[in-house]
Design a protein that fits this description.
It contains no helices and 8 strands. The protein has strands at residues 4-6, 16-22, 25-34, 37-38, 41-43, 52-54, 65-67, 82-84.
Length: 87
């Protein structure tokens, strides 16, 4: 198993949520928006897992913008820095 940690490329705050576990590990927290829906999403930090929780129902094939929960900057472009939690 490979677990990742991520941080915002803008404010460099951790996107890890230690209190919201997905797959028995801290989740990656982001703020998604589409149409008039805004909320929070918690993604599994286990590489290859597609498990998540979200605060609203989302239809398939929607274009979603994702923001940092700390600085509210849009998370687009290059992937955030990732590193192995265990090493």
């Amino acid at each position: 198993m490979f677990v990742v940690e991520v941080q915002c490329p803008h404010c460099e705050s951790s996107l890890m949520n230690e209190s919201k576990l997905i797959d028995a590990h801290p989740s990656i927290q982001k703020k998604p928006t589409y149409e008039n829906h805004k909320g929070m999403i918690w993604l599994s930090s286990v590489y290859g897992s597609y498990n998540y929780e979200i605060t609203f129902d989302m239809k398939d094939n929607q274009i979603v913008k994702v923001y940092c929960p700390h600085c509210d900057e849009e998370l687009v472009g290059d992937l955030p820095r990732m590193w192995n939690r265990d090493g």
